[in-house]
Amino acid sequence: MSKAYDVVIMGGGLSGLTLAIQIKREVANIRILIVEKANYPMPEAAHKVGESSVEIASHYFEEILGLKALLDNELPKLGLRFFYSYRDNQDISKRIELGPNNFPAAKSYQLDRGRFENALIDQCISLGIEFKGGCRIKDISLGKNQHQLTLLDNEQLSSVQTQWVVDATGRVSLLKRKLKLAKPAYHDVNASWFRINHEISIDDWASQQQWQDRVKAPRRLSTNHLLGKGYWVWLIPLSSGSTSIGIVADAKIHPYAEINTFARAKVWLKKYEPQCARVIDEHLEQFQDFLTLKHYSHNCKKMYSAEGWAITGDAGVFLDPFYSPGSDFIALNNGFITDLIVKQYSGQNIAVEMEQYQKLFRILFLAFCPVYEDQYPIMGNAKVMSIKIIWDYTLYWSGVALLYFRGKFCDLAFMQSASTFLQQIYQLNIQMQGFFRNWAEMDLSSMDKSDIFLNYSKITFLQQLNKDLLKEQNDVELHQQLIQNIDLIRELANEISAEAIGLFSQLKEDAPEVHHPTSSHLQDIFALLR
């Protein structure tokens, strides 16, 4: 006889485990089963995407899921840090550096995914969530809030029934494939990454005391980006002592065949990032594993159904790892799915919410696309890319992150009232991302500049936006904050456009409407890069 559940989650990785915890925290007696093909416990060196988290995901783990005790075992993150190419990239101290000199107010973490997910499994079990490791799904029969799954558990076939089934199987995408929901994303970028069982510290790459003293905490705690035209390389520290190293490259500039094996990736690094390659060569005996993904971006036609199914994590969508947004999308999507399941479980009709969440998640995905699509060539331009990064941070902290910290994404009335604000940001961002591309093609003045530290901890408005995430606000105060933020964004667009047009008057036709700037938010940054 089939065992019955309220929710079956297919996949016991980050997205599925956190969803189970979130639902269980909302409804204590709900019956949840997680089915995971890998054996438990997972190896601590489990090789997965998504080690670096940013503010939304960190808030989700800490506050929504109550996992602060688990996060105390992970490494605190010293923000995102960027080093631009300088000549042959043999000396990190000569490269223009953009990053904070201390920890931002809103926390983020570097996640050692094997350890973290094992701890999440323990948390699920302690909450009364059933977890089946080493268990495969042989068949899925979907009905209207009545689904049947056939499982192969320890070579024994069994079946379970459930009102809700959630696909959290990562790129296997069981449900997405079954329902033919795959949708292309036009961002054509590839990635290869590996782990070295050694604490590779970028702080040790230069001995000059002046360079060391720029930053108050170890640089290795940042997600460090080494940037060049069409590519970036990440270095992420993990609490186990290992270091994650990845190459992410635009296929039009750096073909996939150059990075799709570890041997080829080493050759590529020696050509473009020789200082990094030398450090890796010193620790080859501690090489752990290698993975690669071709054309990793993907989309999904539909994420939820009132008939009792949903898709989350990489099983649904993935855009780009540059700003570490993968866990942010998990947090947002799991919030929508939890609200749908909990409301239907209590007997409510979820048709309106389902339609609105579907629309909202699609809009969020599309809103992030211009940040990455066709933008990789800009990474070779220290001036324009630095201004773009500051712009992207501003939009993230002033909009989507602020609304998430206030718990507003499932408040449909509030989101409707904020839609004009969000639309204004979206339209202005599309204009500015195109403007950055055109500016970067014309302005090569930063190519020979070296030994400059662009400390975004000292950009007053940016740090205030980060601190504002932690404020308590009622709806009226939040509305006022959003109005102030859109005024700031317009001022910033004005200031950036005026700076670029002052150098290249032909950019005026590509710029948003430009007035004489009344603000000087980036005056110090511009001065360093002129």
A few lines on this structure:
The protein is of the alpha/beta class and 530 residues long. The protein folds into three domains: 1-74 and 112-185 and 296-374, FAD/NAD(P)-binding domain (3-Layer(bba) Sandwich), CATH 3.50.50.60; 76-105 and 189-293, D-Amino Acid Oxidase, Chain A, domain 2 (2-Layer Sandwich); 382-446 and 472-530, no CATH class. The protein has 16 helices and 20 strands.
Domains counted in the coordinates: how many? 3
Cα separation of the termini: 74 Å
Give the CATH topology of the largest domain. Answer: FAD/NAD(P)-binding domain
Uncertain stretches of 5 or more adjacent residues: none
Counting DSSP H or I runs of 4 or more residues, the number of helices is 16
Output the radius of gyration.
Answer: 23 Å
> What does the main sheet amount to?
8 strands, mixed
**Could you tell me the strand content as a percent range?**
15-25%
Question: In the CATH hierarchy, what is the superfamily of the largest domain?
Answer: FAD/NAD(P)-binding domain
Helix/strand-derived class?
alpha/beta
